[in-house]
Amino acid sequence: MHLRGLGRLRRCCDAGRSLLPLPLRRSSSPSSSARPNQASSGTALTAEEEAAVERIKSSLFKARKGSVEDLVRCLGAECSEIRLTNGVADSLLRRFGDDWKSALGFFQWAQSRGDGYAHTPDACGRMVDLLGKMRQIDRMWDLLSEMHCRGLVTVDAVAKSIRRLAAARRWKDAIVLFDQLEDMGLDRNTETMNVLLDALCKEKKVELAREVFIVLSPHIAPDAYTFNIFVHGWCSVRRIDEAMWTIEEMKKKGFPPTVITYTAVLEAYCKQRKFRRAYDLLDSMSSQGCHPNVITYTMIMTSLVKCERFEEALSVSDRMRSSGCEPDTLFYNSLINLLGKAGHLFEASQVFRLEMPRNGVPRNLVTYNTMISILCQYGRDDDALDLLKEMEAQSCKPDLHTYQPLLRLFLSRRGRGDAVDHLLSELVNKSGLGLDLDTYTLLIHGLCRVGETEWAYRLYDQMVGSEIVPRHKTCELLLSETQRQNMEAYVERIQNDIIAFGLSP
Fold this sequence. Notes:
Belongs to the PPR family. P subfamily. Keywords: Repeat, Transit peptide. Pfam families: PPR, PPR_1, PPR_2. This is Pentatricopeptide repeat-containing protein. Helix content is about 65%, strand content about 0%. The chain has helices at about 5-10, 45-60, 70-80, 85-95, 100-110, 120-135, 135-150, 155-165, 170-180, 190-200, 205-215, 225-235, 240-250, 260-270, 275-285, 295-305, 310-320, 330-340, 345-360, 365-375, 380-395, 400-410, 415-430, 435-450, 455-465, 470-485, 490-500. The relative contact order is 0.06. Residues about 5-40 have low confidence and may be disordered.
C-alpha cells in the first residue's frame, strides 16, 4: 500500500527540496563488516581509547575552518594508525555537541578506512539525528540512503529522521520517507504510522496529521496511542473541544481513555490558566475510576508555579499525598523547584537532603541540576560547587544544564574569569561534553558584559569554525563590543559573517 492518496497533501506542503527516492538495497541484511567490533558504548574507555579520542579531536580542531572533505583528509594524514573502536566512535559523537561538521568529518573518515571498523546502527542513528537537528537535511538524507544500502536503517533512525524533517517544516519529505519504508526493508504499520502522526502533531500540523490518518486508517489499524497522539496534538494547538471529541471517538473504537489521555487535557486547561476546569476534570476522572497519578499532580503543580501561584501549588502537593499517590523523583524535582522559586531555600534543601532519602526516592541528574540552579540563583556558589563534586561521587554524570547556571553566576561577577575557565576545562576535559549553541551564547554574552571581549571572540571563532550558526543578537553584541574597542580585524570578520549567515535585519 502506497500513499498515492497523499498526492494532494504533498503538493500543498512547503517542503523545500524534494527528497530523491532511496536506491535499492544491495543486501537484505547487514554484512559481517557492519557487525559491532567492540563492547557497547556503556563500557568505560581504556587509556588507549581515550588517547585516540583526544588525538582525533586535536586534528579536527586544527582543520575546523575547512570543509568536511578537508577534515576527512586531515584525519587521514594524521590519524591513520589509530585503532578505532565503537567506544571511541560513540564517545566522539557524544562529545561533538552541535558541531555537526566535525562529527560528519570523523564519521566519513572512520567509514572509509577499510580496516575492518564499521559504524554500528546506533552510531549511524546518532549522526543522522545530529544532521537533522542542525538543519543539514540534504546531508541527513544522503546518510540515510547510505545506511539503507548497508542494511543499517532501523526504525529508530527513521523515527529521528521523520521528526527532524517535521521540525524543519519539510512536511512533504516526512510523508515521502514514510512512504518509502518498505523499500528500506521496514514495515508501514501502526508503530511507524504513529511516528509520522506524532512528528506532525508535535509541530502543530494536527490537521495535516488528521488528513494523513484518514488515508492510512483503512489499511493500518490505529491503537490507543494513535488517539492519544491526536488528543495531545489538539491540546497543543489550544483546541480542547477537538481533543474531547477525539476521546469520544477513542471510546467508540474500544480504547478507554487512560490517565495519560486526561492529563493531556488537564495540561491544556492549565496552560490557558483554566484551573477551575482542571479541578472539575480531576473530580470527574476519579468518579470514573481513572485516578490521577503522580505525573498528573506534578504537571498541575508545575503549571501553578509558572503562574506564581505558589501556595495553591503546595496545596496540590498536599492533595496528592492525601490521595495515597506516592511521590517519585519527577515530583520531588518539581517540588524542589517550586520551593526555590517561592523563596523557601531551606525547605528545598530539606527535601533534597532529608525527605527524598527518607522515602527511598533516588535523586537523578535533573534533581542535582535543579538544586544547583536554585543555589546559583541565591548566589550560593560554594554549595553549588559542592553538589557538583557530590554528583561525581554518586556517579551521576553532569550535562551542559549542570554547568550553565554556574557559568552564568561566575560570568555575572567581574574578576571570576579563573572560575569560568576552570569550569569550561572541567566541562570539556573531565565530563567529555561539547559546547552547544546555547552554551556558546551564554559564554559570549557573559564575557562581553564583563569586558572579556578577546575571550568572547575566541569562543565565537570556535563556534563559527564548527559551523554552529550564531544567533543574530550574539553577532550584534560582539560587533558592538569589538567596534567600541577598535578591534578592526574582528569587526570586519563579524560583519562578513552576519551577511554570510543571512542574519542581517
